[in-house]
Design a protein that fits this description.
By secondary structure, the protein is α/β, with parallel strands linked by helices. It contains six helices and six strands.
């Protein structure tokens, strides 16, 4: 699976400022909804419902909110860098500054899991995360996420 299958240059958000986790999820829903041709309220409800099952803050400043939506035809992703970091109730208690949202069709079982695995593996790499944190602009972030090293995470 190539990250370009679900991520585009338009789906990079840098230095998003929000006061709390709910505001982050609202802002990210607003950003990804038009890319996925969905109503932002539907997106927000889906990722908030998933968040209620347990935090998607996996630790080390990373969160991967995700959900399935029946009307989607393919997987959509959005990467955001938060400034300042936000309490996401992460497993390690640390605030989150890197967020990768994934939306998948309801029937995308294996592909959804592959995309989640790719994002998780990439964002567990401290070297890649440091590059993402220091990247000067969205163009560079997209280049990092779509690099050969990132695609080896697939």
């Amino acid at each position: 699976m190539d990250v370009r299958d679900f991520l585009s240059p338009d789906s990079i958000v840098l230095d998003l400022a929000s006061a709390n986790k709910k505001q982050v999820l609202q802002a990210l829903s607003q950003r990804i909804a038009p890319l996925a041709r969905l109503d932002e309220r539907i997106v927000f409800d889906v990722i908030l419902e998933r968040e209620r099952l347990g935090t998607t803050g996996i630790g080390k400043g990373i969160a991967i909110p995700h959900g399935k939506i029946a009307s989607l035809e393919r997987i959509h992703g959005l990467f955001a860098r938060l400034k300042p970091p936000v309490d996401f109730e992460a497993l390690d208690g640390e605030p989150v500054d890197l967020v990768f949202v994934l939306l998948a069709p309801a029937a995308a079982g294996a592909d959804h899991l592959k995309a989640l695995a790719w994002v998780s593996k990439l964002l567990r790499d401290p070297v890649e995360c440091e590059k993402l944190r220091k990247a000067p602009d969205a163009k560079r972030v997209f280049a990092i996420l779509t690099s050969e090293a990132a695609n080896r995470a697939a």
